[in-house]
Specification:
about 160 residues, 6 strands, about 40% helix, disordered C terminus
Length: about 160
């Protein structure tokens, strides 16, 4: 959870469609840096063209690698209304977790994505994120579930 802080979480984000959600993600991943935002947007769109990152249960995990950054960045957005995202289960998406990794750094990229996927299968986490009143509340819940899913003996309880 070192990559996702409370300030990286947005609750109640208006997004009319998948494109708008991906654009919003690029803005949040590159706050105040227009060239970074454009590069990240391009990388996320290119990845999405390979196949939907809608992983089911109302969750999308757009991700890409890019030369635009030197450190990984993650943003979580809870959408104001669920949108069509071409998810595998056909359900609309209201939770978008965007992950951008430096292109040159492969260390931990796949394991981080796998950890997020594991966490985002937890019904308690999904419900908590949908009900969180503040980004801080969502962040605390994410940290708790990350700790539980990282520990094999505790993951059965999550």
């Amino acid at each position: 959870m070192k990559f996702l802080r409370a300030e990286d979480i947005t609750l109640g984000l208006p997004a009319a469609n998948k494109q708008a959600a991906i654009e919003a993600a690029s803005i949040r991943l590159c706050v105040g840096d227009d060239s970074c935002r454009k590069a990240i947007l391009q990388a996320l769109i290119a990845r999405e063209q390979l196949g939907s990152t809608g992983i089911g249960r109302g969750v999308a995990l757009p991700h890409a690698r890019s030369n635009a950054l030197t450190t990984p960045r993650v943003a979580l957005m809870r959408l104001e209304q669920a949108i069509e995202f071409d998810a595998a289960d056909g359900d609309p998406v209201d939770l978008v977790l965007a992950v951008i990794w430096p292109a040159e750094a492969m260390d931990d990229f796949l394991s981080t994505l796998a950890q997020f996927c594991k966490m985002l299968r937890q019904p308690r986490l999904l419900q908590g994120l949908r009900e969180a009143a503040t980004p801080e509340e969502a962040s605390k819940l994410l940290c708790l579930v990350a700790e539980e899913t990282a520990s094999p003996d505790k993951s059965a309880r999550a």
